[in-house]
TrEMBL record:
The lineage of its organism: Eukaryota, Metazoa, Chordata, Craniata, Vertebrata. SUPFAM superfamilies: EF-hand (SSF47473). Keywords: Calcium, Cell membrane, Cell projection, Membrane, Metal-binding, Phosphoprotein, Repeat. This is EF-hand calcium-binding domain-containing protein 7. SMART domains: EFh (SM00054). The keyword Membrane applies. Residues 215-260 are annotated as: Disordered. One of its GO terms (biological process) is positive regulation of protein localization to ciliary membrane. Its main location: membrane. It comes from the Eukaryota. It comes from Tursiops truncatus. InterPro entries: EF-hand-dom_pair, EF_Hand_1_Ca_BS, EF_hand_dom, Miro-EF-hand_domain. It is a peripheral membrane protein. Component of the EvC complex composed of EFCAB7, IQCE, EVC2 and EVC; built from two subcomplexes, EVC2:EVC and EFCAB7:IQCE. Interacts (via EF-hand 1 and 2) with IQCE (via N-terminus); this interaction anchors the EVC-EVC2 complex in a signaling microdomain at the base of cilia and stimulates the Hedgehog (Hh) pathway. Interacts with EVC2 (via N-terminal end). Interacts with EVC. Residues 245-260 have a biased composition (Polar residues).
């Protein structure tokens, strides 16, 4: 049986992987689950020379867990049992409810990318959580649980265990004595074994060249006894079978339909060498008569989610008559306290302009802000009358999860000698900056619409008209909109409601991208300016959602229109499109064939650039007749980029 978790109270689970053939083992080389421990990585030769980022550590641990269960990270998870086992090897303690959340009746398979997303959402079990779970059952508060109580718990509550499974737990010699289960020893042993398992598995990935080079499922490595030989290039017009062609007949063996899997390998590499000013026409300059044009401005923000996804405000713009238009986007400069870093000012920004034709679903890419003047990106051109969507974008190269530890938490509130509660000066300064960000139209006031974008971000709920009326009655407003002072008083009221407990205030701050030192590290506020020579543009903020979907299509279209194209050797239907400006490079894979393709990318030789994926070696799967953004690079000063597609694995599914 597979290990599971058993719930003992709301939100509390006890590991079920103590029993059965996949149960907790005591030896360091066991298959016990492991959690992400950075300390074990520090001993590897690579990390000593080049410290690993948090993202690299995460994906390395994902691969280690996945490759412990599967031969390749191209293998799919095809059952609940496999999902449960893989999650346990990644240090998770999934209950049946958790498994069912990701494996629904409609689920046929999950791939490695799905597995990584699950691990971002399901955090590893900590020693403190385990101790807290067990402590609730420790009636004598002596660090142990009677076997009789443990037996009743595990067989009567939650996901009930069998008698054999409970006996397997009770028979663990190192944590049982005198009819009692010593949960303190168990928790210590559990964490020690997890750490050792992780270290052992990662060391294997480090020294085993086949596993290390495999990364995301590469099968390129040959037998160590043979010298590497070049991969043959098949003719574009001839489909050749490889030695690894295989046949599988799923279901009834009497079926006349056979599924054939054929693998084809080829490679292409190219080098881009460029300086910071490689394009002479990439300089953004204002039109000469712009002072006579009509202007509108709106603010917004990129927010980094827990799973690494980026969301932002999105806009609709109306142009009443054909006009010359000048659009810009740049990071918003806030009044940070002296000495505090402003990391968001280095985040790259872009704006894609799509025209709404017959419906919102039918959007046509018109242009994007490819010209640059320092941190500002812009576009100048003519737009006809109509409705346009403005979709902000960032490569994500500079907007990533923070990895530096915060040693001292900022104080948000304090009481005077009379006991009255006040917001600290530092917190008030931060709230003032937040007000500046959420005041989208820049009029110094918060409308209900603007305030609701803030509420949706921080609490997931909207404020209705009745609640807004109460807010106007109790806090400083002007023209039915909340003033900056009213916003401060609203937060002070929240602090008083919590009797000075700052936890709810910290939820708001974290949602807005601030860390415990009140530094804005996981968000990038920006400002959009739009000028038109014939009419006044109108702009309205309509969404705050993930930078995907229409944006992905827009990026692919822009790269296909303006980038350089290179055909994969021997496969005329697989094309790599690359667009470069003086600050970033974007690559898109176009698959014109009727079959999915898996592209393996190796960027290890790239210099002076930042990769938005955080990995030098990875794989992407491209559906038939589609395009996909492969990766983006943010360029530093002078950039030498070598993009080597190690090989193409083309899988053909043929009915015979």
């Amino acid at each position: 049986m597979r290990g599971r978790a058993i719930s003992v109270s709301s939100g509390v689970t006890i590991p079920r992987f103590l029993a059965g053939p996949f149960g907790m083992a005591i030896s360091p080389g066991s298959d016990a689950a492991f959690s992400s421990q950075k300390s074990t990585l520090s001993e590897s030769p690579r990390s000593k020379k080049f410290p690993l980022t948090e993202e690299e550590i995460f994906y390395m641990n994902c691969r280690a867990a996945y490759l412990t269960v599967f031969k390749s990270s191209l293998d799919n998870i095809i059952s609940k049992d496999q999902l449960c086992l893989a999650l346990q090897h990644a240090g998770r303690n999934p209950s049946q409810k958790t498994i069912n959340k990701y494996w629904t009746p409609q689920t046929a398979k999950l791939n490695f990318d799905d597995f990584c997303l699950i691990l971002r959402k399901e955090k590893p079990t900590s020693k403190a959580e385990l101790l807290k779970s067990f402590k609730q059952l420790d009636v004598n508060d002596d660090g142990s649980i009677l076997h009789t109580d443990l037996y009743k718990l595990l067989t009567k509550r939650g996901e009930k265990m069998t008698r054999e499974e409970v006996n397997a737990i009770i028979n663990l010699a190192d944590v049982n004595a005198d009819g009692k289960f010593d949960y303190i020893k168990f928790c210590k042993l559990y964490m020690t074994t997890n750490e050792q398992c992780l270290k052992t598995t990662l060391e294997k990935l480090e020294v085993d060249s086949k596993l290390r080079r495999q990364q995301f499922g590469s099968h390129m490595e040959g037998s160590p006894e043979r010298d590497p030989s070049p991969v043959p290039k098949p003719s574009p017009n001839i489909i050749r079978k490889t030695d690894q062609e295989s046949f599988s007949n799923k279901g009834d063996t009497r079926s006349s339909s056979l599924t054939t899997t054929r693998e084809f390998r080829t490679s292409v590499s190219f080098t881009i060498t460029m300086g910071a000013s490689s394009k002479q026409n990439s300089k953004l300059t204002e039109p000469n008569s712009i002072k006579e044009w009509q202007c509108v401005q709106s603010k917004g923000c990129f927010f980094l989610e827990e799973d690494g996804e980026i969301i932002s405000h999105q806009y609709r713009m109306q142009i009443a008559q054909r006009s010359l238009v000048y659009l810009t986007i740049k990071p918003l400069n806030l009044s940070q306290a002296e000495g505090k870093p402003s990391p968001w000012l280095s985040v790259d920004t872009a704006l894609y302009i799509l025209k709404e034709n017959e419906s919102q679903a039918n959007l046509q890419l018109m242009c994007f802000t490819e010209l640059r003047n320092r941190e500002m990106f812009g576009w100048t051109g003519e737009l006809g009358p109509g409705i346009y969507w403005l979709i902000p974008s960032t490569t994500g190269c500079r907007l990533k999860k923070e990895i530096k530890p915060i040693t001292e938490e900022a104080q948000l509130v304090h009481r005077d000698e009379t006991g009255e509660l006040f917001l600290t000066k530092e917190f008030r300064s931060t709230l003032s900056d937040i007000f500046e960000v959420i005041d989208l139209d820049g009029n110094g006031l918060l409308s209900l619409e603007e305030y609701n974008f803030f509420e949706l971000r921080t609490s997931g709920e909207k404020c209705d008209e009745d609640a807004w009326a109460v807010c106007r009655e109790n806090f400083d407003t002007k023209k039915n909109e909340l003033t900056r002072q009213g916003f401060m008083d609203l937060n002070l009221m929240e602090a008083n409601d919590g009797e000075g407990d700052p936890r709810d205030l910290w939820v708001t701050l974290h949602s807005m991208g601030y860390n415990k030192a009140l530094e804005l590290t996981e968000a990038c506020p920006f400002v959009i300016d739009i000028y038109a020579d014939k009419c006044k543009p109108r702009i309205k903020t309509v969404h705050m959602e993930a930078c995907s979907g229409q944006l992905e299509k827009a990026i692919c279209k822009s790269v296909l229109n303006k980038g350089d194209a290179k055909v994969m050797d021997g496969y005329e239907n697989i094309i790599v499109h690359t667009y470069k400006c003086d600050t970033w490079i974007t690559s898109v894979i176009e698959n014109k064939s009727d079959n999915k393709v898996i592209i393996h990318i190796n960027n290890e030789l790239s210099k002076n650039c930042v990769n938005n994926r955080g990995l030098d070696i990875f794989a992407v799967e491209v559906a038939p007749k589609s395009t996909m953004v492969m990766h983006c690079f943010l360029i530093k000063a002078f950039c030498f980029i070598n993009l080597k597609k190690t090989f193409l694995l083309l899988m053909l599914w043929i009915n015979m």
